[in-house]
Protein: Nucleoside triphosphate/diphosphate phosphatase
Amino acid sequence: MGYPKEGETIQIQSYKHNGLIHRIWNETTILKATELCIIGANDRTMVTESDGRTWMTREPAICYFHAKHWFNVIGMLRDDGVYYYCNISSPFATDEEAIKYIDYDLDVKVFPDMTYNILDEDEYADHKRQMNYPKEIDSILREHLNTLLHWIHQRKGPFAPEFVDMWYERFLHYTK
Structure:
């Protein structure tokens, strides 16, 4: 598997467990890419939903993907601080066209004061039943949700105080 190169622009493609496309972010600039981690950034990028509807993101975002963790993290830079949207998902895969992952419905929204809400538990339960998530997947997802919550409490990885600002500065280098 090849990895995107630093400075390259690539799509992010989110799928559901049944293999159908869920959402596509049209352009993300790669800031770091290794076999363990990809960090990217975008600002006002076009997003296409599975039903064909499109919308534009409103603010700069730093995207964090890990090869061993079943979640990804988007840090959104807003006027009143950094908000995080975390997807419980498969680890990432890449090819020449995109960073790809399976979205498993559960999400965590984290506020600038590091309080958070777990979202979409009903959607997770519905899709778990409809798409027959194996018990092993359910167990992995629950374990990694707990890991994610631990990272938030510990301000680890993408939740570290300077993480988003540091990578945003690097993103600005590529947009000049």
Observations:
- The two ends are 30 Å apart (CA to CA).
